[in-house]
Every structure is written in structure tokens, then in C-alpha cells.
């Protein structure tokens, strides 16, 4: 039987939880620079082409990424980097946006990682996993689950800084992080079951129900934090 969420059902305008981890559960971010580099690739692939072209002297390296840009095909709603795995919450507008994005960003990072640490071979275990999100409740609780993950990590790297949570709290801004769709639920009181929650931060940090239990095994791999 195939491993859970390997068989992917991609649709236009679909929402997905994408996650992948290091081969043999090995760490894939060994220092702060590794996280910074992964952020760099997120920015190159997901910032608008106009933004990339407007930079002063962008250089040949950035110019090389412009034809590979996917800012019109996917939105990155939330994410967190973890010592040995990655969580991404994505909305894709085209049927193959996620496929192209994951292939490009993972290949770019593996090439960087292998060169830096003088290694060869695969870095990520098997293929990445993808679970389609089909309700507002899952959409909200997945973002909460993703943002709670770094709070549990004891590491010299502050993984909260390498998640989308600071962008949701207004402490950082980047055009390639798209928090507005989820934050709109709290600003317009779209969900009656969140009426006692006054802010997104309160939802993440104070909400009593366990988001991982709400999401269940259809979305969360048993051995992924």
C-alpha cells in the first residue's frame, strides 16, 4: 500500500498541505545560514517578476530564476522550517503549480546543501507528501498547527524566525508570504466557532482544542511533528 499522501490529487485553485523530511529523518537545516538560503529560494521563486526585476543590479543569478518564477501559479499561505522537515500550506492556481515549485525549490536546496557539506546523493526522504485541504476549518487549523511546530523545538536555531508566524503577527513583511486569506477570518468573524477568539495570535497560542487531532491522519503523517 502506498505511503499516506504520496498519491496526489491536484486541482486548479486547490489548497494543500505539503510536507517533506530528511532521508533517514536526518537534519536538513544544520545552521542558520541553511535556513536563510531556503528563504532565499522561496523569495526567488515566489516574489513577483516585477519585484525581482526592480532590484538594483539584480545580477545574472537572479535573472536566471525569473523564467522559473511561479508567483502567478501558487500562493504560500503559511510555512515552517524544522530541523529535519518542512511544512508548507499552499494554494495553487494551476494544476501543476505545486509540482513545478517543489521540484525547483528542493533541487535548488539539495544542490546548495550537498556542495556546502561536501556530500552526494538524496537529501529528502522519498517523494514529498501532499494532502488536499477541503474545508475552512482545516485551512485555519493547518496554519495553526504549522505555526505551533517551531515553538516546540529546542535548537540553537530560532525556527520561529524561519516560519510564516512573524508575518501573521505583523512583525515581518514579504510579498511572497500570503497571510491575508487566513487572517480575514478573524477580521470579519466569518466563523462562528471562533467568535471567542479575538486575534489570530490568540487562536494559535490560546485555543484549547488540539489542531493535530482536528486535522487527523488524513493530513498529518504519524511520524511528522
Outline the fold blueprint:
Layout: E1 14-21, H1 32-46, H2 49-54, H3 59-65, E2 74-81, E3 85-92, H4 97-116, E4 129-133, H5 136-148, H6 165-168, H7 180-187, H8 200-206, H9 211-215
Helix pairs in contact: 1-4
Account of the protein in words:
Helix 1 (32-46) packs antiparallel against helix 4 (97-116). By secondary structure, this protein is an alpha+beta fold. The longest helix has 20 residues, at 97-116. The chain has helices at 32-46, 49-54, 59-65, 97-116, 136-148, 165-168, 180-187, 200-206, 211-215; strands at residues 14-21, 74-81, 85-92, 129-133. It has a domain at 14-135 and 152-179: Alpha-Beta Plaits (2-Layer Sandwich), CATH 3.30.70.1290.
**How can the largest sheet be summarized?**
4 strands, antiparallel
Strand order of the largest sheet: 2-3-1-4
Structural class: alpha+beta
| SSE ordering | EHHHEEHEHHHHH
* pLDDT averaged over residues: 88
CATH class of one domain: Alpha Beta
CATH domain fold name of one domain: Alpha-Beta Plaits
Shape: globular
Distinctive features:
single chain; 225 residues; alpha+beta; Alpha-Beta Plaits; 4 strands; 13% strand
Summarize the structure.
This protein has about 220 residues and is α+β, with helices and mostly antiparallel strands. It has helices at about 30-45, 50-55, 60-65, 95-115, 135-150, 165-170, 180-185, 200-205, 210-215; strands at about 15-20, 75-80, 85-90, 130-135.
Amino acid at each position: 500500500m502506498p505511503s499516506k499522501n504520496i498519491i496526489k490529487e491536484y486541482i486548479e485553485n486547490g489548497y494543500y498541505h505539503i510536507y517533506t523530511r530528511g532521508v533517514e529523518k536526518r537534519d536538513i537545516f544544520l545552521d542558520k545560514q541553511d535556513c536563510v538560503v531556503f528563504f532565499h529560494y522561496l523569495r526567488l521563486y515566489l516574489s513577483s517578476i516585477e519585484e525581482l526585476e526592480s532590484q538594483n543590479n539584480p545580477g545574472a543569478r537572479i535573472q536566471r530564476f525569473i523564467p522559473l518564477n511561479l508567483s502567478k501559479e501558487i500562493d504560500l499561505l503559511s510555512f515552517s522550517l524544522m530541523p529535519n522537515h518542512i511544512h508548507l500550506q499552499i494554494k495553487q492556481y494551476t494544476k501543476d503549480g505545486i509540482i513545478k515549485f517543489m521540484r525547483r525549490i528542493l533541487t535548488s536546496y539539495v544542490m546548495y546543501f550537498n556542495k556546502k557539506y561536501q556530500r552526494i546523493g538524496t537529501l529528502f526522504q522519498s517523494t514529498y507528501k501532499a494532502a488536499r485541504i477541503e474545508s475552512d476549518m482545516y485551512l485555519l487549523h493547518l496554519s495553526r498547527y504549522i505555526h505551533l511546530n517551531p515553538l516546540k523545538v529546542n535548537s540553537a536555531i530560532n525556527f520561529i524566525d524561519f516560519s510564516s508566524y512573524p508575518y501573521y503577527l505583523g512583525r515581518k513583511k514579504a510579498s511572497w508570504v500570503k497571510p491575508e486569506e487566513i487572517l480575514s477570518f478573524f477580521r470579519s468573524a466569518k466563523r462562528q466557532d471562533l467568535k471567542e477568539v479575538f486575534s489570530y495570535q490568540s487562536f494559535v497560542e490560546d485555543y484549547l482544542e488540539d489542531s493535530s487531532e482536528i486535522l487527523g491522519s488524513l493530513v498529518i503523517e504519524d511520524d511528522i511533528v
